[in-house]
Fold these 4 entries.
Entry 1:
Amino acid sequence: MRLTFLGTGTSTGVPFLGCHCPTCSSNDSHDQRTRSSVLLEFDGRSIVIDTTPDFRQQGLREQLDRLDAVVLTHTHADHIFGLDDVRAFNVRQKEPIPIYADLPSMESIRRIFPYIFEADYPAGGIPRLTPHVIDGPFDLWGLLVAPLPVLHGNLPVLGFRFGHTAYITDFSAIPETTLEMLDGVEVLILDALRHQPHPTHSTVEQSLELVRRLKPQRAFFTHIAHELRHEPTNAALPRGVELAYDGLKLELS
């Protein structure tokens, strides 16, 4: 299975509009971050976790020509506002695309995108989605995906574990019961917004503490703000831990 980081930036993306800080002015392509999302590819299937406002741009960059499922962590704008663009794959594949989310997120999706679910919508060109509510582990063509409940400030959101890999973006705290579900993880992908404390996101130091506890073989940080330059931040991280970047591909067992 291949995992591609479609985006690794925070909700504003990097560069931040109107900012001229060293990161936003950087010529290093690693410092140019679209909103956070990943693509999983296996056995001819393509699955995205979150459809960001940059989804179309990300799909064009990665030459994505098939989409088999959308899995959502939560429904903040930077994670769902590209959902309408999945309709291109409806046209290509001539079938609905399954979408997976917990119950509160599915209710929000129906409220934010009512036209998708209105049977009598008068215009054409809308996404065709088949909703599936996540209430436990679910199977995607032989890939078992386990939801990982975490807290994003006071909002419950989901990370996901598939095989020996876990993807947890947008969190500030991980309950003990979820940490137990991460036992034996080999590739750990974590939110690490910046060094300074934040009320709804993990910092670099907090995520490093989780890495020390869980001891994965490799760890990658994502959902990165413009406070972190890629090269100097990466150089300061311990062995086996690195900042992810847009387009980074991992081959997973």
Entry 2:
Amino acid sequence: MKVLLHICCAPCSIYTVEILREDGGKVMGFFYRYNIHPYTECLKRQETLEEYSKKINLRVIYQEGYDLENFIRGMAYREANRCEYCYYERLKATALLAKRGKFDCFTTSLLYSKYQKHDSIKSIGEAIGKSVGVPFLYHDFRPGWKKGVTESKRLGMYRQQYCGCIYSEKERFFR
């Protein structure tokens, strides 16, 4: 099975790639950039993923550009539901890429995090999958949370302290 995996960051990809490969998947990654703020944070996450993907022989497609303005415009006045908006944007981009690349399905490393809204991710992913014509693969990767954290620390990976958007950065550091 040819799987396109949306990757939010290298640490979250460790366990997800391992499990997808164990299940027989031919995995390719996709790094979506527009939701990661500020730009220096985006670069740190991308550089970490580039280094890690070479170590594990994982091909990754890196989104071009940095359309911060349109991402923020789309999220403005939706702050209460910003995560759902962000999930939708990332999963839609992944599904469209999966369709172009003739993948059997798509999924996301967001499903590894115990901090993400799994029900929302699953329902949004399934709806997008139906509309685009590429199935969304739901898998609860949270049982591997500790294993992924331990491995990312052992590898000396950059580990971010917030989800990615400027709103989550504020919640994390402004008290």
Entry 3:
Amino acid sequence: MANLITLSRLLSVPIIYWLAITEYNVEAVLLYLLAAATDLLDGWVARRRREVSDLGKLLDPIADKALQIMVLVILVQTGKVPLWPVLALLAKEAAMILGGLLFLAKGTVVSARFSGKLASAILFPALAVSFVEPSVGKPLVYIGVTASILAGADYLIQAFYTLSGKRIAG
């Protein structure tokens, strides 16, 4: 069930994009907010139903980032934010994917970190605010992207510790 919720978030990405580019902006924002809310729901369901899985650990961040990057692309296309936040987030995610593949090849999946959850908690609403009120949302997007990059560094540090057989708090 939890993985299906995560998958619904991933599948909402092209629908939200289509709604936004066809100027169904209210609908796009509402579907985005609903999809963003599934980020909280899938984790809760997974823990509650004891469905935490390696697939979920991989699928959840992919769905989050696909949703976040797609909304950033829409915001760039509509002139509401500059290109650099998209490029910064894409570069960070490319590094995370490459690192994740290396760890996966060694049979290791590193769980989500609090720093990543905090970054998403900042970035998800910042993107929604930017869609509606760019002058308010743009600085929040900058903070969210910065938090995401710092969370990526935290994740990679934890991944290296995990491979070495150690664990750090968080």
Entry 4:
Amino acid sequence: MSKKDEILNAAIILFAEQGFNNTSITEVAKATKVSTANIFYHFKNKEELFLAALENVKDGIMSHFEEYLKSIEFESGLQMMEEIIAYYLYLAGSMQQWFLLLHSHYPYRLALVNEVCRDHLEKTYNSLVDIFERAVVIGKEDGTIADVDSRKTALVIFSMVEGVVRFKIYNLYDSGVLFGELIKCCNKILKYKE
């Protein structure tokens, strides 16, 4: 792993656990056993380091999802949706720092004034919703999902799953207990016919 990657990994953990304002470049340097000058060699300032960490999280989540989707053959769009939900919850549990950083308040505040940050967030969420939407489209084609608006339905289901992820990363509820009910609710949405 390169020094730049080590710096990014340490920054993700520190930003996720302490927040942007409470994390100093000195702490990142200490965690990676490099000088602050070395960090500034790779990143112009703390904000640029934060943005790179955020992009790294997006790339990591999408890379995991791409590998996962390549490794499984789904029988139907409905089964794909159920598996995607399960995998997303698994990923949020196994890569908790990534999701803690993604769900912290700071990136959304920064996105109001920083186009790069806004772009990272939009790409992250659009890419994830695209995966959910793909399952809806496949399910509509194979008849396991009703004729619903693919994008809006994917957004609603993703929002529900994100809510459970927030419960998980902030240790508010046991997401494993909610999983069965989440799947039932999603199935009702996907199979509902007017």
